Amino acid sequence: MAVSGIAPVGAHDKPDMARYMPSPAEKPPAEKNGQLSEDARQEVDELKKRDREVRQHELAHMIAGGQYVRGGPTYTYKIGPDGRRYAVGGEVQIDTSEIPDDPEATLKKMQVVERAALAPKDPSGQDYRVAAQARQQEMKARAEIARQKETPDTADEKSPDEPKVSGVNIQI
């Protein structure tokens, strides 16, 4: 589970989907006469739990990411012994780009991105990397804001006694 800009959580766990897909003519291996074995039922229970965790994790990213989320979550599935698909990983795309020529807007955006990355109760390694990237962009934006405050416009550099030119009018 992860945010990409915030990327796949459990990407290291991505299953080989072909390994889990029963052929259309065969029943899932754990099923006999419509019943699942005890081991298969336990695996289904674990898959259901993981599915809930993954969906909650990605939903937390989406809610916190607000307007910067691009589309809905994408899930990686595993076919359980009951033949059903269970989400075992996921990701949410979030826009992590700077806002050109507007460090204050970039700062606010990166604060949202950081909160979105860390929103789930169990952020992934990728989530932490995205949060760190957002913090770096926040620091860069803060530095740019400070630089702009220190470097006054050329019109402001004139002494109060010098006339200021505004368009064709001269103010004295």
Structure notes:
The protein is of the alpha+beta class and 172 residues long. The protein has one domain (2-171). The chain has 4 helices and 7 strands, in the order E-H-E-E-H-E-E-H-H-E-E. The strands form 3 sheets. It has a 3-stranded mixed β-sheet with strand order 1-5-4. Strands 2-3 form a two-stranded antiparallel ribbon. The protein has a two-stranded antiparallel ribbon with strand order 6-7. The chain starts with a strand and ends with a strand.
Topology readout:
Blueprint: E1 2-4, H1 17-20, E2 31-32, E3 35-36, H2 38-65, E4 74-79, E5 85-93, H3 103-117, H4 125-150, E6 164-166, E7 169-171
Parallel strand pairs: 1-5
Antiparallel strand pairs: 2-3, 4-5, 6-7
Helix pairs in contact: 2-3, 3-4
Average pLDDT score: 81
Shape, please?
rod-shaped
Low-confidence stretches: 6-27, 164-172
Tally of helical runs: 4
Q: What portion of residues is helical?
A: 40-55%
For the structure shown, list the relevant keywords.
3-stranded mixed β-sheet, two-stranded antiparallel ribbon, alpha+beta, 7 strands, 172 residues, single chain
